[in-house]
Amino acid sequence: MKHTDTIAAFCTAPGGALAIIRISGPEALRLAETVWHSSRKLSAEHPRVLTFGRVRLEDGEGLGETCLAVYMPGPASYTGEDIVEIQCHGGACAPRRILSRLLANGARLAEPGEFTKRAFLNGKMDLTEAEAVADLIGAKSEAAFRLAERQLSGALGRKVRSAKEEIFLILAEIESRLDFPEEDLDWQTPARIVERINKVKSSLEQLLAGRDRSAVIRNGVRLAIAGSPNVGKSSLLNLLLGYERAIVTDIPGTTRDTLSEQAVLRGISVDLTDTAGIRDQVADAVEGFGVERSRDTLKLSEVVFWVFDASRNPQDDLEAMKKEVPAGTKAIAIWNKCDLAPEGFTPPDTGCPAVCVSVKEETGMEALLNAFETAVWGSGDKSIPECAVSERHAGALERAVSLLEMAIPETEAEMYELTAENLRAARQELAEITGESTAPDVLDDIFSRFCIGK
Ligand SMILES: Nc1nc2c(ncn2[C@@H]2O[C@H](COP(=O)(O)OP(=O)(O)OP(=O)(O)O)[C@@H](O)[C@H]2O)c(=O)[nH]1
Ligand SMILES: [Mg+2]
Q1: CA-to-CA distance for 36 and 67, rounded, in angstroms?
Q2: All domains in the chain, ordered by first residue
Q3: Nearest ligand, CA of residue 251?
Q4: How far, in Å, from the CA of 373 to the mean position of ligand 2?
Q5: What is the atom index within ligand 1 of the atom nearest the CA of 248?
Q6: Distance (Å) from CA 338 to ligand 1 centroid
Q7: Residue to mutate (ligand 1; options 248, 338, 357; most atoms within 8 A of CB)
């Protein structure tokens, strides 16, 4: 696909020491030369060489900004089109002036993800790889970054294409049987065809098995710290973050509003929220709103650290936990202030994993993190899956698996027209994953989640 317009945007976030402006499209070089003033040309004689020069926006405007620029002719470029990148001093003014001038001279401001969309449309990468670019930028943990890297190397695309190819070969067998029913050729038996369909199906099921782990690694988990007032929730938040984020006092009701921070615990990216102590009796409306927010946070969290004070009678707090933690949420009972607990304290059963800690003395944290890790992964596989399977991919894989499932009894009954129809539909589902046939609105949706300049 050839684009006739030339797009430009910042590739770097504002505020850095340097800024990069990227221009892509048939007019990239001409537009760059409208602002480039140097005896060293950017042109075709020196492609892919970083060239020092100046950008001068108006004639007679002094020497102009010192810059570096590089011309990368297509198709051997990120987008597959001609690209020029100009590196200039960061800050608010210099980059904006250069970009404005390029836009005034005929470039169009790139939409979010448009450079990568062009790369995809020009066949530089499949859709799973393009999605991986966004994942790479958005990765909040080392594991998420490594998963995105695997995706960018085409791991999922290769597996999906190979399943698609095998379905194509099975289809060829079935269609020739349908086309030449009279001929007594060496057809494969229905049992053999079923065996082949089953093999493809299980390769897709294997990919689907990595879906939950992929989701945890890519999206992280929402973790709430909740419990009655004054049990040490905010102290625990501070210890997990490694700095004094929340106010801690011995006055019950110190935390009045929810407070969220990002953290990485045991390699898992965590959206960590400290909440106001939950109680039925509130002194005023503000406290009441705070408690409501705590309850809302619990509803949205996948994991809850329910904190108890091990030095006091737990009866009311046990009932509160039972009442407040929504069913299906993975809860861990954290018995804090163990330094004050009576000799030989054993935590009462809550039906959830329990750990005894003292945030004050920083004891029990290893056990707490172990319990968190087990709550997230279960006792199963903690490794990074070979392929990142997003909800979009999983939806298409599930549909492909059920179409292949339908094709099995049809093949056994030698109803080959129906088998062929379902195999074709399964191929179509797989083509949506790699982007060989993906509806334009789905593409727009995927690329709109990118940042501008990528
Ligand atoms: N002895 C002891 N005191 C602790 C421990 N953890 C927290 N505290 C103290 O308990 C008091 C309450 O701590 P916070 O972290 O503010 O408790 P909270 O659950 O956030 O309280 P609210 O925001 O009021 O609901 C403070 O005086 C802390 O210093 C602990 O492990 N041992
Ligand atoms: Mg607090």
Answers
A1: 9
A2: 7-125 (3.30.1360.120), 132-210+388-435 (1.20.120.430), 219-377 (3.40.50.300)
A3: 1
A4: 24
A5: 16
A6: 12
A7: 248
How many CB atoms sit inside 10 A of residue 183's CB? Answer: 10
pLDDT tens, residue by residue, 57-111 = 775 565 567 899 999 999 999 999 999 999 998 887 888 889 999 999 999 999 9
Enumerate the H helices of 331-390 as residue ranges. Answer: 365-377
Q: How many angstroms does the Cα of residue 229 sit away from the middle of ligand 1? A: 9
- The predicted-structure confidence for 158-184, as pLDDT tens digits, reads as follows 999 999 999 999 999 999 888 877 766
Q: Which ligand is nearest to the CA of 317?
A: 1
Ligand index nearest the alpha carbon of residue 249: 1
Residue 165 to residue 175: CA distance in whole angstroms: 15
**Integer Cα distance of 263 and 242 in angstroms:** 10
pTM of the model: 0.77
Tens digit of each residue's pLDDT (9 = 90 or more) over 333-380: 999 999 999 999 999 999 999 999 999 999 999 999 999 999 998 877
Q: How far is CA 177 from CA 165, 169, 417, 427, in A?
A: 19, 13, 10, 19
Closest Cα to atom 21 of ligand 1: 230
DSSP 8-class letter at 326: P
Within 6 A (CB) of ligand 1 lie 229-235, 248-250, 252-255, 277, 336-337, 339-340, 358-360
